[in-house]
Structures are given as C-alpha cells and as structure tokens.
Amino acid sequence: MKLRYFAWVREKTGVSEEEIDLPANVATVSDVIAWLKTRGPEFEHAFKNSEAVRAAIDMSHVEQTHSVSDAHEIAFFPPVTGG
Amino acid sequence: MIRVQEQDFDIKTEINAATGMSKDVGAVVSFTGIVRSDDGLTAMTLEHYPGMTERELNRIALLAKTKWPLQSVRIIHRIGRLTPGENIVLVVTASRHRQAAFNAANFLMDYLKTDAPFWKYEERGRDALWIERRTSDENARARWEQIED
C-alpha cells in the first residue's frame, strides 16, 4: 500500500511517499505508527509524539483506532492549518 | 464549485459567477482570508494533500447545502508561497435571504480550517516553522455541532 507524509511529518521522515508491504500483525493506524517508529531514527523522531499526528485512509480523516485492512493509501500529517 | 490554485482570484468575478443569471438570489456573502504580517511574518507557504483537499472541500460544500437553502457555493484556496497582503482563501455563498448566506459562509470557513488538508509554513526573516493548530479553530467548528443537537 501507499504511505504518504505531509508538512513536518514529511520533513522529519525525509519521505513524501512510499510503497510498503505492512507486516501481517499491523491492524490499525496506531499499529502502523508503532511499526513505522521501528524503521529508523527519522521515523522514531517524526512519530515520537504520535498523538500530535493525524491520519487519513484513502483520503478520509480517520482516528488512530481505525482498521487499515482495506486501505490503499494511508497519509500522516499534523493537524491542518489552512484558511 | 471548488478550486485549489497557485494564482490569485478575482472577488468580483466569483461573486458574479455565484449570482449567475439567477433572479432568485437575494443575498451573496463573500469571505476573503488575507495573509497578515503578524510578528514580522515575511511569507507563508501552503502545502496541501492533492486529491484529499478537493474531496474535503466538496464534502463541506455539500454539507452546507444540506443545512441551508443555497443557490451557489464557491470555495477557492490558494497554495504555494504567499506574502503579507495576498489573498489566501475565498468563500462565496448565494441564497434567497441573507441569514442562510451569512451562516453558510461562516460554517464553511470553520469546517475548512479543521478539515481541509492544508498546512502553513511561516517565514519570519531567516526563521521558518510549521504553524500549529489553534484550539479556537476546533471550538469554532464544535459550535456548529452543538447547534445540530
């Protein structure tokens, strides 16, 4: 599946998007975040304060408890600040 | 009608488009957000999530149309690097009566601020940082949910 990162999450991870095969035991958005944190210091830094990170699945806002089983694209970003 | 674009918009053109040839529109409200030079701000850059931004703006425009009798909703949001005095966002609502147009424009801005995936990166001389969400924005949105109940 595709993972995308925006704003300071993108800057901290150093990645804007990537194709990833998630491990089988990753079921929810918070599981994805926990797994991402094991991928290296950049990811650990970006997701250190994980409650500050928002997520969207297939371009809809979701809570971190949401299942990722049907997801094609998961995005991680800070709370939005447009307008 | 929603648009995400780098270039500026012309408010009069958009108001005319919202009114159209209709003789039923009795009220048009437009809100324009402009970059302020607070605390020595020299520029801001707006990043967004292409695809999701358009989905969210369409979703909140439709939501407004279910709540108020609107003939037209137009939302234009700029992206890229903007300097103080430049336009950022335009919301135009058209209705038979002013209250629906006023309320819908207010609602659309409150929802846009909490739901549309835009992020502001602010420059102050050599310093630059991503700005943080204000809790007042979340409170402004929550207001409408209380009204629904």
What does this molecule look like?
The complex is a heterodimer of chains A (83) and B (149). Chain A is an alpha+beta fold. Chain A has a single domain, classed as Ubiquitin-like (UB roll) (Roll), CATH 3.10.20.30. Chain A contains 3 helices and 5 strands; from the N terminus they run E-H-E-H-H-E-E-E. Chain A has helices at 7-13, 29-36, 41-46; strands at 2-5, 17-19, 54-57, 60-62, 73-77. Chain A has a 5-stranded mixed beta sheet. The model of chain A has no long low-confidence stretch (mean pLDDT 97). In chain B, helix 2 (52-67) packs antiparallel against helix 3 (98-115) and helix 3 (98-115) packs across helix 4.
Write the layout of secondary structure elements.
The complex is a heterodimer of chains A (83) and B (149).
Chain A: E1 2-5, H1 7-13, E2 17-19, H2 29-36, H3 41-46, E3 54-57, E4 60-62, E5 73-77
Parallel strand pairs in A: 1-5
Antiparallel strand pairs in A: 1-2, 3-4, 3-5
Chain B: E1 2-5, H1 11-19, E2 27-34, E3 43-48, H2 52-67, E4 70-78, E5 80-82, E6 87-95, H3 98-115, E7 118-124, E8 127-130, H4 135-148
Parallel strand pairs in B: 1-4
Antiparallel strand pairs in B: 2-6, 3-5, 3-7, 4-6, 7-8
Helix pairs in contact in B: 2-3, 3-4
Relative strand content of chain A? 15-25%
The CATH architecture of chain B can be named as Alpha-Beta Complex
Parts with pLDDT < 50 across at least 5 consecutive residues of chain A:
none
Q: Give me the strand/helix succession of chain A.
A: EHEHHEEE
Gyration radius of chain A, rounded? 12 Å
The overall average pLDDT of chain B, rounded, is 95
Helix content percent band of chain B? 25-40%
The description of the largest β-sheet of chain A is: 5 strands, mixed
How much of the sequence lies in strands of chain B comes to 25-35%
Secondary-structure-based class of chain B equals alpha+beta
Shape of chain B: globular
Please tell me the CATH architecture of chain A by its name.
Roll
Instruction: State the low-pLDDT regions of chain B, or none.
Output: none
How many helical elements of chain B?
A: 4
Distance between the termini of chain A: 31 Å
Structural class assignment of chain A: alpha+beta
Helix content of chain A: 25-40%
Q: What's the CATH H-level superfamily name of chain B?
A: Molybdopterin biosynthesis MoaE subunit
Question: What is the arithmetic mean of pLDDT of chain A?
Answer: 97
Strand order of the largest sheet of chain A: 2-1-5-3-4
Task: Let me know the number of strands of chain A.
Answer: 5
